[in-house]
Amino acid sequence: MQSIDTENDELFDNKTACFFTKEYHLVANDLFETISLPAKNLDQLQQQITQSFNKLKHESGAKPILIGAIPFDTSQPSSLNIYRQHTKNTARFDTEIAKIKPLEVRNKKQVVEYSYFTKMIETALDHFSQQRLDKIVISQVADFELLNQKKATDLAMTLSVQNPFAYSFVVPVDQGRYLFGASPELLLAKENLNVRSNPLAGSRPHSEDKEVNECLEEELRNSDKDLYEHKIVVDSILKNLTPWCHQLNYSKQPEILKTPTMLHLSSVFQGTLKNNQNQNDALSIALALHPTPAICGSPTHLAKDFILAHEGYDREYYAGLVGWMDAEGNGEWVVTIRCGLLNKSSIRLYAGAGIVAGSDADLEWNETEAKMQTMLNTLSGN
């Protein structure tokens, strides 16, 4: 068996965290504390975060930042890392990127098999009539053997170069692992009193053929199934974000957001927060929107119960939140999709599809395979 390249073992030694966007590159180091309290206990979680920031405010030269992840199931422990130092610079795409050795993987092991996935869809379709469910998101997962490693900043740069319009992240989580990915979906950004959200729902594989792509875009714009799926998500964001805002605008018609492998129906929300909100930090508002129907289903509590009972594996951080927040409560949180979990010898990759009445099991499986290909392309440098 080929040995693992440990030349860049510092990925697992210094706990560096990265969050890259098309506008900026955020890198945090000098880990002060990791908060693992479940996000379900929001008041206690806010207290712990505030206490950590207050301690660091008294340290000379400290530039504290929180970068971390919340699981899909908020009753599970969080991984919120408080750092003493961070840099936030204008995004640059290093000319040395071609010299960065890509991650090498092999020996795919399907954790959720095709037959089980399609059976779940059949069960989900039955639940629509029996329990008045509108939508359920079903996911699959696969494990790969990892043949080498790289620094956190190199991995984040690779993700960012391969997916320049996504939110790329490399964040240490529990059990000595790293959560990494390139999510296209902004859950909540906050800067002072201004907030923004960009939910996605309804997808097609992205073709390299321009004419095929144009047909797929037109098909997506006119698909009753996809437009219905998208409307469910938009209605959920509108319902949960409105109480925080005294002004909120959103797209009346969805647009097409393109990634290297997918086409998505996309809507943008922009709002101004109420001045009298006592705890209107970015993470608290993001948690008020989580889980959206885009990664769970609708009604939320019934869809979540179905997922936990039938999906056949623990999502952990997949379809949760990942992002950052400063001591003033500003930050950005994205939906944890197009992602994986990495340890010293293996990686796990995830992908999901929204199931509504009329969904076809084969097409939904193909959609998850296309989404997973985003990460495989990135890891191989394609």
TrEMBL record:
**Keyword annotations:** Isomerase
Q: Name one Pfam family in it.
A: Chorismate_bind
Query: Which residues are in coiled coils?
Result: none
Listed InterPro entries? ADC_synthase (IPR005801), Chorismate_C (IPR015890), IsoChor_synthase (IPR004561)
Instruction: Please state the Enzyme Commission number of this protein.
Output: 5.4.4.2
* Superkingdom of origin: Bacteria
Where the record annotates domain Chorismate-utilising enzyme C-terminal, the positions are 117-371
Q: Which GO terms describe its molecular function?
A: isochorismate synthase activity
Per its UniProt record, what Gene3D superfamilies does this chain match? Anthranilate synthase
**What catalytic activity does the UniProt entry give for this protein?**
chorismate = isochorismate
Kindly report, in one word, the top-level EC class recorded for this enzyme. isomerase
**Family assignment?**
Belongs to the isochorismate synthase family.
Name the chain's protein. Answer: isochorismate synthase
